[in-house]
Write a structure and sequence with these properties.
The chain is an alpha+beta fold. It has helices at 2-60, 89-92, 180-191, 194-205, 219-230, 250-260, 323-333, 341-361, 367-374, 380-383, 396-400, 403-417, 423-442, 449-466, 468-475, and strands at residues 69-70, 76-83, 96-102, 104-109, 125-134, 137-142, 149-151, 155-159, 165-171, 209-211, 242-247, 269-276, 287-294, 299-307, 481-482, 500-501. It folds into four domains: 1-31; 69-171, no CATH class; 180-318, Beta Polymerase, domain 2 (2-Layer Sandwich), CATH 3.30.460.10; 326-451, no CATH class. The strands form four sheets. The chain has a five-stranded mixed beta sheet with strand order 1-3-2-5-8, with no helix packed on it. Strands 10-11-14-13-12 form a five-stranded mixed beta sheet.
Length: 505
Amino acid sequence: GDVQVESADNKTQEPEYKNELHVIVFNLLLYIIFCLIPKKKKKKKRIKELEKDGRESEQKLEKEDERVEIGETRPGINVQGYCVNQDCLAAKARLLVWVNLGFGDISFHSNKTLYRCPDCAQSTVTSVVKALFFNSEHSICASDSLEPVKDNHYQCFYAIKPGLSYELKSKKIRQHATGLEDLITRSESAMTSNEILNLVAELQRYLITVVKPPKVKDKVRLLEKIECDYNGDYNQVFDIGRFTILCDNATKLQTAVAVMKKAEQFNLIVSEDKDFFERQSKTHHRFHNIKLYVPKHDVYVEMQATLKNFTTLEGYTVIENPKLSHLFYEHIRAWRPNNLEAEEELKQVSDETLTKINDIICEWIDDKGIQKLANRYKSHLDIGILKPPQLSKKTETEIDSNLPLKIAQFVYEQLCKFAPEKVKGKAIYVVLYEYYKKYIIGDKNPASCADFALLLQESRKQELEEDIAMSQALETYIPLQANDYPYVDGDDDNKQQDTYDCYQH
């Protein structure tokens, strides 16, 4: 009976186990259908997307072809076209060439030109496809338009359409003032305008030092510069109100220039860009010059960027005697030599000396070269600079009215007062002294007490060589010994003291 009961109980429980198994299998199927399969599909889809992105990335990373352009663009009008000379390498390679036409007015038909190819030097550039105006106020007009396009941005490109005629005009940028006082007023207003102040604030945000002059240039000096440099044309002056941008290094300078070239966002126009940081200026001063047009005041303002190590601006410079180079420049800038050969030569070597000084300041000479110059330095106290004989018995009035005398006095005073301690300062002193010795005093004359003593020694040596009797006596000379202290017989200390050759002392 017990067995039957147990079997009855087992029969009643079996369906329950089956039901539970069905539920488990059912849930497992649901999990596979709704979880595993979608995940697998998503994974495959993701793999396909990654493969697609990879293919697109490979396409995006294809190397760009280098754009080759022949010729150089310079201030004024530049046109670009094709040369048709069969013997020209640029023509064979179908390379575009730039032709600079300078400032002025020109007109041409785009398919009928005869410009000189910079490669083969033949007038075989017969078609123009592009025009560039650089550092100029300009206008351009096509035969299919009524009004010319005018602009004064430093760099403007225009596509030249085939079959059309064009008129191009370009002139150097100029101020638009009615007089010097008007120019000064406009410049002062522009320097304090919101447009310029906002640009300055943006530069300072990049930790770049911007120095605004406390006042515009002295009027007397300004008039002298206008008369001397620009033949009295005040509208060629741009540095009445100049900002100096000082940077810690070349990268910061690049940043400053890049910010200034985006001046349009401050309602300013970059009208001229001159880079004398990588290529040498006439005086070898090293800077990047940007001229900004302020439309509100119809005036140009100059921004000059350089490195802190190169500036001679007082209060910011690390150069000893920073005024020296500028004062020297002021002396020789206005110099118009007479037709005398000696004065022409002095003017030329003065210009060369200024460039040598700036080569040191602006490091066109490397550290090793500057150190080599500095090693030859001897101070005024050591050698005793002699006054130029041409200044003897000359009054201040006579000196001021004679530029060679004025320069001689200036250089003499600088050499007597300047006592450099740093390497650059010593190198500058050596360059100035060699100029003074060779061209102010003259090679055959002593420029210092040390030179004078050397001349006496040379003269004495020559006299001895010419005196036969003395020469023979010197050949048999036995030096006598002497001392500069009391000699006591039998004193051992005598041996420890120095003795002297009577002939030498």
